[in-house]
Amino acid sequence: MSQNPDLTIRRANPEDAGLLSELGAHTFSETFAADNSPEDMSAYLAASFNLAQQKVELNDPASIFFIAEVGGLAAGYAQLHVGESAEGVEDSKSVELVRLYVLREWLGRSVGAALMRACVDGARRAGHETIWLGVWERNGRAQAFYRKWNFRAVGDHVFHLGSDPQRDILMERVL
């Protein structure tokens, strides 16, 4: 059970664009800024977490967002997206776990697990048979978390962080 009795997970709505913009940029920076150039980080954050982009993603019927709140304050979020599967992902009824981001202060305190549970349950309810994701080859903490949730490596692909092509490990989990 949750270590945080005040932890709740809710579906995001279009009014959450500003929150997701701030939360996404903050959590991404916390996790990756130390290992990447300021120029590449700035370029990626500006393209991926601007308010207009978040509005587009929230209004996309192929995407579902879950927000984790502790005591009414956002602690993290996750995004599922139905689209073309990456090479190496076998199932045609798959869904991508695009993001699962948790504020540093909430790491190891059940927030990520609650978000993953919501993603797995949501994917099953929607009739998906597989969840897949890409995780940076240098993010060992995230890889260990995904392995704990029965994800397995099935390949790799390139993720562009600004001008820096990086290797992501593709992982999938059968539901």
Automatic annotation (TrEMBL):
Keywords: Acyltransferase, Transferase. One of its GO terms (molecular function) is acyltransferase activity, transferring groups other than amino-acyl groups. CDD domains: NAT_SF. Pfam families: Acetyltransf_1. The keyword Acyltransferase applies. Residues 7-175 form the N-acetyltransferase domain. SUPFAM superfamilies: Acyl-CoA N-acyltransferases (Nat) (SSF55729). InterPro entries: Acyl_CoA_acyltransferase (IPR016181), Bact_Acetyltransf (IPR050832), GNAT_dom (IPR000182). This is GNAT family N-acetyltransferase. It comes from Drouetiella hepatica Uher 2000/2452.
